[in-house]
Amino acid sequence: NDPYFGKLVVYKKDFTVQVPIEASQPGEAKLKLKYQGCSDTQGVCYPPQTQEVTVKLPASATKPASAESSSLSSLSSLGGDGGQQPLDPEQAFKASIQVKNNEIQLHWDIADNYHLYRDRIKVGLADTDATITTGSIPNGKVVDDPGFGKVQVFYHTLDAEVGIKPGSSDSAVVVAGSQGCADMGLCYPPIEHAWKVNFKTGAVEPLATVPKATLEKVVSLPSSSNSAATKAQQPAQSEPVQRSQTDAITHELQTGSLWTIILGFLVIGLLLAFTPCVFPMIPILAGIIAGQGDKITTRKAFVLSVVYVLAMAVTYTVAGILAGLFGSNLQAAFQNPWILTAFAGVFIALAFSMFGFFELQLPSSLQSKIMQVQNNQQGGTLVGVAIMGLLSALIVGPCMAPPLAGALIYIGQTGDAVLGGTALFAMSIGMGLPLIIVGTLGGKFLPRAGAWMDAVKNVFGVLMLGVAIWMLERIIPDIVAQALWGILLIGAAVYLSATDPLKEAASGWSRLWKTIGVILLIWGSLILVGVAAGGKGSVFTPLAGLSMGAQGGSAQPTAALSFTRVKNLADLNTKLAEAKAEGKPVMLDFYADWCVSCKEMEHNTFSDPT
């Protein structure tokens, strides 16, 4: 009855295993042996071992190979004497404590070529009603342990502190637990030490027998802000880990409380609502509201907006959970050029319908049946809005922002789809709150009928074309996309009567729209000029590529970051080795044509040498 492995069969001194082998002809065979054992005297357990031995097969197929006992004589040498004998655990890990000002200072002296695991340092109290309040332990060295994976370990020495809330008695028994391994490849079972202490006088007396106590991991205790051990030993062990935004989000999911996570992701969603990820959804939702005509009310606009946002949120959540669990990105799959082109075509058709070129309507017979259903219920409209919300989430908003990436990494690593999905849903609701406000207010202030409706349709038509161009930007060259934006702005200016003469009796509104139209006309023209000059700028800085020429050619071109594209892991490792040999730092840029943040980094960050 092993204290760590339960009931099992063990062998001591020596044992023989007979393995029948059938062979068609004499020769040699390689056997792979796997085994694990422990030392009773030293109290250590060796990690699982794998060895290969070669045995001679007998000439007779009916004669078992075990008869050739001499062929297995090499087994006696497996493992050998291990070279240097391992130390006793008390010699490898010498523990001591001090008591001062209601604090227990734990200290370990670790022998050379031995190490302790950070997350296996525990502490507890016995024979007292005092309680442990805080704990402090420095960061260790991160190693890739064959048995535990990536963990933090300590070499040579370790200091930790534990805060105590005194009880009715000044005395107590302190129990400290630890576990460590030798670098030679053997691990000790958990070790416990006990001391009888007096919190008032600071007296410490080691105990030979360890009493039963509930031990807590020091890393799991609330940290104390003025830890001397942390301040003194933190720099010696390792520098503070600098986390990226994605890693910070993943860490928050791993350590934060449920309500903190929900509130945090809701706020993050609100911030993401003002990024290019969400802007294209505004004209889509506005088009849905405007499509209701003069029958729209504030309540109906609110309901439609909520249904649209809920469908979007559910889609983000489900897609995120599936992506985290199965390692696939459904949004990325929907960025196929054929799919994007098809949906862009749908938005273009909707835009031209708004402009009055044709009417998009179902056959009259089908319209009659739908009208009969809608007279009895409003579910059909809501289902259609929900479908648009679903498609908007997959097609229009493929942003891999740090919160989304962090949630996906957390789901993939832990399999906790409930917490990860809850965080994604809270983030999606935060992204959708401004959409609900815009949709509701839009339904209240949209004109009900008259000539104003034609102007509103024209505005939504331009917005639909903008969404189509925005989607196509992911698969077409930048210079072509800039040209399309310029043409769209000029077309919008024409619809705003920028090229028509202004009547003498024109109203103030007419003059305002004409002013906006002239601005759009100039803006679109500048974009086309920039495209004709090579398209080095952007939609918002169309003449950026011409600024150097305006200085008479005296200015030197600014140096932007130059990335080398690698196609596989082997190429990456080669480039990393070359950079290491030259002593140069390396920056990795993960890019996708459909990634909005990637394009922003390429145009705004990497192109700016400062």
Question: What is the secondary structure topology, with strand pairs?
Answer:
Layout: E1 27-35, E2 38-39, E3 44-45, E4 49-57, H1 89-92, E5 93-100, E6 103-110, E7 114-117, E8 122-126, E9 131-136, E10 141-145, E11 149-154, E12 157-165, E13 171-178, E14 180-182, E15 186-187, E16 191-198, E17 204-207, E18 216-217, H2 228-237, H3 245-255, H4 258-272, H5 281-290, H6 298-326, H7 330-333, H8 337-354, H9 364-376, H10 379-396, H11 402-414, H12 417-445, H13 451-472, H14 478-495, H15 508-532, H16 569-582, H17 596-605
Antiparallel strand pairs: 1-4, 2-3, 5-6, 6-12, 7-11, 7-14, 8-13, 8-18, 9-12, 10-11, 13-16, 14-15, 16-17
Q: Key features?
A:
alpha+beta, 5-stranded antiparallel beta sheet, 610 residues
Task: Explain this structure.
By secondary structure, the protein is an alpha+beta fold. It has five domains: 1-80, no CATH class; 89-237, Immunoglobulin-like; 250-363 and 376-456 and 467-476, no CATH class; 477-547, no CATH class; 569-605, no CATH class. Helices cover 43% and strands 16% of the residues. The chain has helices at 89-92, 228-237, 245-255, 258-272, 281-290, 298-326, 330-333, 337-354, 364-376, 379-396, 402-414, 417-445, 451-472, 478-495, 508-532, 569-582, 596-605; strands at residues 27-35, 38-39, 44-45, 49-57, 93-100, 103-110, 114-117, 122-126, 131-136, 141-145, 149-154, 157-165, 171-178, 180-182, 186-187, 191-198, 204-207, 216-217. The strands form five sheets. It has a five-stranded antiparallel β-sheet, with no helix packed on it. Strand 5 and strand 6 form a beta hairpin. The model is unreliable at 61-82, 225-242, 373-380 and 549-557 (pLDDT under 50).
